[in-house]
Amino acid sequence: MDRHHQVLLNQVRTFRQDVLDVVKDVTEKEAEFIPKNFRNNIRWNLGHIYLDQFMWIETLTNKSSETVKRFNNWFGFGTTPQDFTSETPKLDELVSLLKGQPDVIEDLYVNRLNREYPSIDMGIYTIEQVLVRTIFHEGMHLQAIMDIKKFL
């Protein structure tokens, strides 16, 4: 792996750890709390972060998985915790999935980070570009989580 991709994957891991550090002391009950004038809770934000990286990669590569389909029902754009079912992952499962996701992405895509695909939204045409976009998106949801925590 070249240095450029080492740095990118290190950023993915570092920013993900920032999210995990913010929720390390959050309880399941706290993860369900939706403050007044908020649409979602911490649990939803964590599931959305997890979904987002895989969803963008799958959109780019024109692949689909059952995990993304299921997660999209609960954590996709426009959903809320009202869309949760008994099958929706709880806080501890989401934390575990988020911890492992950077390794999964590296294992599956390290040799394809610069492969060019037909472009999608914003002109994105490589997995590398997807990861840059999802790092930014993850930061937005990290802030949402931090804002919710102020009400706990």
TrEMBL record:
Signal sequence range: none
Span of domain DinB-like: 12-145
Name of the featured protein: DinB family protein
